[in-house]
Amino acid sequence: MKKTTRLKQLIRSEEIEFLMEAHNGLSGKIAENCGFKGIWASGLTISASLGVRDNNEASWTQVLDVLEFMSDATSVPILLDGDTGYGNFNNARRLVKKLEQRSIAGVCIEDKLFPKTNSFIKSEMQPLANIDEFCGKIKAMKDSQTDEDFVVVARVEAFIAGWGLEESLQRAEAYRQAGADAILIHSKRSDVTEIDAFMKEWAFRHPIVIVPTKYYKTPVDKFEELGVSMVIWANHNLRSSIVAMQQTSKQIFEQKSLIQVEENLATLDDVFHLQNADELKEAEKKYLPAN
Ligand code: SPV
Ligand code: MG
């Protein structure tokens, strides 16, 4: 089945589904090997892993290069965090074309202005996109996809920017009518109250995606009860790798020895396995001269 069709099915399925964050081919493979049915290519973690900020400092073609590795390394669908679409409707529809060429299953765009700022930094000062302009962007993206199952998720940042329920609902409904396949409603509260209120008013109109980074203490049962379609664990592979790398670097630096760290690391065989080294061994037998 096509990756696009798979993602569309996940979003529309009766059951709650989960996407795991990845930011390169390796983390994508790890997420897939653990059983995740789809991957969130996070703007925050791709930028952080490149050593830059989540302010569109990495160009969109640099992000595409990362995605190409991620897509080649995995077989589950990838939903790209496409920020604001990297410009106006014209930039966003060209993005769709380039994502389709790389077998990326869908893209999420948020209703802020380019260059964006991460939702958890100075969020109340962040200007939102004009609703009509954003709807035009969604329509242009949907009109330009050549695969009918390519997914466009529209992300509402109204709660993040300090607007209330009414503004969030108005935007979500406008984006639904513009043709978005799902709405991502984001909240920076440490409890689920905004999402709860939104879901009750929304009343199962269209699939809803959430990112519970800040309200992580809320059990998944609650999201199910509210009728959430998809949950994104948005940055946890990157954050866990930061802790692991900091500990390892520190230990090796201080001890000038590998003795203490060795047993806590993935083995080299683990690395070769993740790189699918065995396949190359087999191919060499088949394609290289025998002597
Ligand atoms: C990301 O993972 O880059 C996101 C989610 O957009 S958040 O960081 O919560 O804004
Ligand atoms: Mg992001």
Automatic annotation (TrEMBL):
Listed InterPro entries: ICL/PEPM, PEnolPyrv_PMutase_core, Pyrv/PenolPyrv_kinase-like_dom, Pyrv_kinase-like_dom_sf
EC top class named in words: isomerase
SUPFAM superfamilies linked to this entry: Phosphoenolpyruvate/pyruvate domain (SSF51621)
EC number(s) from the headed UniProt entry: 5.4.2.9
Keywords: Hydrolase, Isomerase, Pyruvate
Domain of life, per lineage: Bacteria
GO function terms (MF aspect): hydrolase activity; phosphoenolpyruvate mutase activity
Family note: Belongs to the isocitrate lyase/PEP mutase superfamily. PEP mutase family.
Name under which the protein is recorded: phosphoenolpyruvate mutase
